[in-house]
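Hi support team,

I've been running sequence recovery on a batch of backbones for a student project. Most finish fine, but this one hangs at about 90% for roughly twenty minutes before it completes. I'm not sure whether the input is malformed or the queue is just slow. I've pasted the structure tokens below so you can try to reproduce it. Let me know if you need the job ID as well.

Thanks,
M.K.
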């Protein structure tokens, strides 16, 4: 199979991401409380904070406070409950995209995480690159306006560095996108990977930050860039991500995942009945299963509107049709997938009666 050919997510081993997450849990807790502790104990200790966060995040977005994660205890509860699943979503998007960058091996690769939160996107990118081109010339820039989550993002990358026995430069700044100095983001050489994790859907409430981000994207015209975007799978933010995808394609960005055709306008934007997002099936570790029992949920299948774009970068997509819709429940023995071919949507029955492909997966060759 060619190195850039997407593969089923279940073939990938995410144990490294789990181990790093659990190590950060312990280290962050010890910074707060001291003493010996296990990851499970950290979860149990933060039970009340987890329940409060889950209740808040399942309410209307207007009820969210900008200072919700400003305290370290609250940030740790968020990290315990939601960081790992966000990392898996970003990692799944990268794995399915087939991003390899082998032509860039030995050259500088800078990861710029805008509105980084706890660093889920950076951690996913770091581990993905370590597995395909190594970490010799890898560096990171982290930006967020909340210091407590920025600290966790830095800690996560330090654990990654220790795990990989490397010392990548890590720069961080506590500031919002509206205060970003766009002239200082890109390095003089090499490739830049921009990360927008759960940021785009919130920029409608911050016009200055939106303008600054668009200024930054305009500076990409003559630079080799990878852009990783992840948004919630819910209709509202997913449709905003679809609109962003079309705007970028109009400006000569190439949509590499989940799109079979890198330069085509998304055919789903004309369909008001459905919207584009990906699903990832995995086996949560015991520590996260403890979180799920506290919250009364199960997260064996994760959803997100995940996209990978490139600019001025050679990258051969697979062009294989992608499943973008399927029945939420199997109501009969017969059903059709909604399949994207890049320029059009079709319905197609499964190749086998037992087949259950997820959104974002390639349709197998007949």
């Amino acid at each position: 199979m060619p190195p850039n050919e997407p593969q089923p997510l279940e073939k990938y081993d995410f144990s490294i991401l789990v181990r790093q997450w659990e190590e950060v849990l312990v280290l962050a807790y010890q910074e707060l409380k001291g003493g010996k502790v296990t990851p499970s104990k950290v979860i149990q200790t933060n039970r009340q904070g987890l329940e409060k966060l889950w209740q808040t995040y399942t309410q209307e977005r207007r009820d969210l406070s900008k200072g919700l994660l400003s305290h370290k205890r609250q940030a740790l509860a968020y990290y315990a409950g939601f960081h790992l699943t966000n990392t898996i979503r970003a990692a799944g998007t990268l794995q399915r995209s087939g991003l390899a960058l082998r032509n860039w091996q030995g050259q500088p690769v800078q990861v710029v995480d805008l509105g980084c939160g706890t660093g889920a996107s950076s951690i996913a990118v770091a581990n993905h690159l370590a597995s395909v081109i190594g970490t010799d010339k890898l560096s990171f820039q982290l930006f967020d306006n909340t210091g407590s989550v920025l600290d966790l993002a830095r800690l996560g990358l330090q654990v990654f560095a220790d795990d990989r026995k490397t010392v990548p430069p890590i720069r961080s700044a506590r500031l919002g996108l509206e205060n970003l100095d766009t002239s200082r983001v890109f390095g003089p050489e090499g490739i830049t990977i921009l990360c927008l994790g759960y940021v785009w859907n919130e920029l409608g409430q911050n016009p200055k930050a939106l303008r600054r981000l668009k200024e930054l994207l305009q500076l990409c015209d003559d630079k080799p860039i990878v852009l990783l975007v992840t948004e919630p799978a819910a209709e509202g933010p997913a449709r905003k991500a679809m609109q962003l995808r079309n705007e970028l394609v109009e400006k000569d960005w190439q949509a590499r995942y989940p799109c079979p055709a890198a330069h085509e306008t998304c055919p789903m934007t004309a369909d008001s009945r459905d919207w584009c997002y990906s699903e990832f099936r995995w086996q949560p570790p015991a520590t996260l299963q403890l979180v799920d029992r506290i919250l009364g949920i199960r997260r064996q299948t994760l959803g997100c509107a995940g996209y990978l774009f490139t600019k001025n970068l050679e990258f051969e997509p697979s062009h294989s049709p992608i499943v973008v819709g399927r029945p939420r429940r199997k109501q009969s023995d017969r059903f059709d997938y909604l399949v994207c071919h890049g320029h059009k949507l079709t319905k197609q029955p499964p190749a086998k009666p037992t087949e259950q492909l997820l959104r974002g997966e390639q349709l197998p060759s007949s």
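--
Follow-up from support: It reproduced on our side and the slowdown came from queue contention, not your input. Residues 1-9 have pLDDT under 50 and may be disordered. No action needed from you.
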